[in-house]
Write a structure and sequence with these properties.
heterodimer, A: alpha/beta, 5-stranded mixed sheet, 62% helix, 15% strand, B: ATP Synthase, domain 1, 8-stranded mixed sheet, 20% helix
Chain lengths: 290, 117
Amino acid sequence: MASLKDLKTRINSVKSTQKITAAMKMVAAAKLRRAQEAAESGRPYADRMRLVTSNLVARADVSSAPALLIGNGKSTTHLLVVISADRGLCGGFNGSITRQTRTELTRLQDEGKTVKLLMVGRKSADALRREYGKQFIDSIEGIQGTSVSFSDAASLGDTIRTGFEAGDYDVCTMIYNKFVNAITQEITLTQLIPAEMNVVDDSNASVNYEYEPEDDELLGSLLPRILSTQLYSALLESSAAELAARMTAMDNATRNAGDLIDRLTLVFNRTRQAAITNELIEIISGAEAV
Amino acid sequence: MAETTLLELVTPTRIMAQKAVQMVVAPGVEGLFGVLPRHAPLLAGLGRGIVEVHEDGKITDRIMIDGGLADVSGDSITIMAERAIDLGTADSAALKEAVAAANEAEADFLNAVVAEL
């Protein structure tokens, strides 16, 4: 049985762990509120952008549409954009992204396709580097987390577009954690290229729009923006989801530490009482022997 | 009160302006154009330039944008811009500081804003 001193040390160490996890939970909760606000304030732009584009797409001439919209007719090389976190200690957040990426990779490779990876966030990149490092086209860190900036998303979008135009890949899919609520994240796969447009045939469609410049040209300049906007909102969602996951994980850890402290304290008290009883017996039997 | 059109200016991070105005002058890629109430539906690409907001016959707001898109329909004009700065409240010293921290494209825009002030 562990000595009293050992138990005391153990209890103290669990207590300090608990303090850390409780603090991390509080920090994550505070940041989560900010991240949620950021995600919400980004929504009007994304929504309007989507509406305008789907309107435009509905009326555009499909045969002459830009390759970003209809693809380049091939689907031999796939690019997966994987958005994970830069930091750990957020429960299954990074693990599930990595797992989903693996599944997707295997599926595509079984179909005989070439797969390339663009990793955003350190954690999944680290997890996959050994196995698939050769397939990485880039690994980016530090653009998500507490401060997501649109220009980072835009330059990421430019990287993806340039690669596509150079023929490095034919299809581009993004894998990220979507923020559902504080305890649920949902892994989402979104196809970026060719752009997935759910064309809504709303009442506006009958209105005769004027375009300036011509609709094809306008669509051409709009699609890169849509790409950046999609990436931006994915980064925002993923950051909010990461913080939510961390908050939940740290809440659980704090609770577990509390349980452990209770159990250890019980053992500690029992051991102490046993030691006292032992000493008493020794004293009494010593006195009787005299 | 005179007829108005609803102006909405949104950026990826926030809604910058949302109000009923008399006229909006926007920097289209093919030249400046004004939007009055009951303008014909129009979808226009915008270049870098200044969006002028007219109320009561005067220019009340001048917002510099770095390209974007204007969606004009019936009674509203929605301007989507990736970057936008209100020239009325911008402070050139603060902007110059921001230039140092910004990346190339953003710094270029901020410099243009400073030149405009």
